[in-house]
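User: Let's play a game. I give you a shape written as tokens, and you guess the letters that built it. Ready? Here's round one.
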């Protein structure tokens, strides 16, 4: 192992769960948002279809990384996956419904920004809501640590 790998491993062992969760979140958010924006802007899928599929892809990455890296859980897949899917769906519908409503209500604040539209703003806002709600659901319900 290189010195950099040893330092990174040492750092990650000392970090708290939320920091590791955020690191995993960066990975699955980049993955999920990439899928969302390609579906929305390239393939012209709807807001709900794009966010649902993109979050599904990000969720799969999230489950595997959070189970092994963030929470170091030994929970059986047959018990963990149904709980995980429940948390993901609840967080998804709540977060993206709230963000769509908020984005519609405050559109005048960002309507002068030329590179973002209302749906894209709602997606970014929903992603933030989703991350916070998802952390608590994963920690206290799915992996129960």
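Assistant: Ready! My guess for every position:
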């Amino acid at each position: 192992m290189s010195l950099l790998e040893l330092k990174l491993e040492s750092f990650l062992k000392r970090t708290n769960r939320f920091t590791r969760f955020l690191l995993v979140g960066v990975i699955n958010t980049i993955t999920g948002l990439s899928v969302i924006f390609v579906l929305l802007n390239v393939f012209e899928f709807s807001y709900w279809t794009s966010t649902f599929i993109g979050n599904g892809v990000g969720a799969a990455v999230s489950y595997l990384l959070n189970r092994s890296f963030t929470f170091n859980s030994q929970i059986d897949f047959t018990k963990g996956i149904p709980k995980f899917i429940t948390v993901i769906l609840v967080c998804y519908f709540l977060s993206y419904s709230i963000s769509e409503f908020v984005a519609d209500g405050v559109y005048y604040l960002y309507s002068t920004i030329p590179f973002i539209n209302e749906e894209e703003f709602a997606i970014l806002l929903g992603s933030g809501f989703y991350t916070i709600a998802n952390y608590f659901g994963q920690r206290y319900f799915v992996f129960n640590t």
